[in-house]
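Anyone up for a design puzzle?
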C-alpha cells in the first residue's frame, strides 16, 4: 500500500508531525510519500491520501482546502484523512476541539475523512504543544482506517 502524506506549513512544525505520522505508517509496512503542497503533489497513483495543515489567524492554511478542491474527484475514490495543528489545542478540551473542527470544515465540508487528527501546535521552542504520544497513537489507529 502506498500513501501520500501532503502537508502545508509556515514554520515547519506541521512537516515534523507529517514525518512522524509517516514513520508510524512505514513501521506498519506502508510505503509513504511525504510532500509539501507547495510542490503540487498529484494524489492519483496512491491508495490513500492524508492532508495536514496548521490553523493560522483563525483559518486552516489555504493550500490544504485548495488542494482538496482541485483533486476532489481523485480523493473521493480512495481513503482520505486529515490532521490539523492549532495553538488553541495547547488545552485539549472538547470546546477547543469543536472550534478546530469548525475551522477544518473548509476541508471536511468537501470530503468526509476516514479520520481527523487535531493536535496542539508549536509557536516556538518554549511553546511547543505537540503531544507526540497522541500523534503516534492517531497514526497507529489510522493504519486500519485507510485500508
Ligand atoms: C501568525 C500565527 C497565527 C496563528 N494563529 C492561530 C490561530 O488562529 N489559532 C490557533 O489555534 N493557532 C494559531 N497559531 C498557532 C499555529 O497553529 C501553530 O504554531 C502551528 O504549529 C504552526 O504550524 P507550522 O509550524 O507548520 O507553520 C498561529 C501561529 C502563528 C505563527
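Challenge accepted. My sequence:
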Amino acid at each position: 500500500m502506498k500513501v501520500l502524506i501532503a502537508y502545508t506549513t509556515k514554520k515547519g512544525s506541521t512537516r515534523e508531525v507529517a514525518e512522524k505520522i509517516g514513520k508510524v505508517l512505514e513501521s506498519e509496512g506502508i510505503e509513504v510519500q511525504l510532500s509539501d503542497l507547495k510542490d503540487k503533489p498529484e494524489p492519483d497513483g496512491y491508495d490513500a491520501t492524508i492532508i495536514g495543515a496548521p490553523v493560522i489567524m483563525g483559518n486552516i492554511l489555504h493550500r490544504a482546502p485548495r488542494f482538496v478542491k482541485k483533486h476532489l474527484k481523485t480523493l473521493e475514490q480512495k481513503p482520505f484523512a486529515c490532521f490539523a495543528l492549532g495553538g488553541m489545542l495547547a488545552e485539549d478540551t472538547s470546546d477547543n476541539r469543536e472550534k478546530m473542527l469548525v475551522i477544518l470544515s473548509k476541508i471536511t465540508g468537501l470530503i468526509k475523512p476516514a479520520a481527523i487528527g487535531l493536535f496542539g501546535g508549536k509557536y516556538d521552542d518554549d511553546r511547543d504543544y505537540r503531544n507526540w504520544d497522541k500523534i503516534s497513537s492517531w497514526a497507529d489507529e489510522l493504519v486500519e482506517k485507510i485500508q
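A detail worth pointing out: The first strand starts at residue 2 and ends at 7.
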